[in-house]
């Protein structure tokens, strides 16, 4: 299992996530890896991905990081408390997306190292590609569920 989320690990996550997308015949994706402070480590936007995809991917990654849970979980929580989650999104300047595809990256003791966001296909597909990327880089994502 990886212990650090550095540039090499981030690039591995992105390359494997995009390889997973191509293997699934997904629509073109944008993928971003953020450190624990919300700063980009690496990102990529595939040819054909719309210009907004990178910002949506970043909003997914920032939402997961800022709320301490994968965006799939946040989307479920938002259904039961929409006013709170709308307020959070407003407080963050709209920089939060409640759709699967934002996943926390955890270290060996569950410490949050950062997050990954992807956008371009369905939320489920985006999340599956991120998870494939994290596994390829040696991160054990079972801890985040």
Automatic annotation (TrEMBL):
Report which superkingdom the organism of origin falls in: Bacteria
Question: Gene3D superfamilies this protein is in?
Answer: Haem-degrading domain
The record's section on InterPro entries has: GlcG_carb_metab_protein, PduO/GlcC-like, PduO/GlcC-like_sf
One Pfam family from the record: HbpS-like
What protein is this chain from?
Answer: Uncharacterized protein GlcG (DUF336 family)
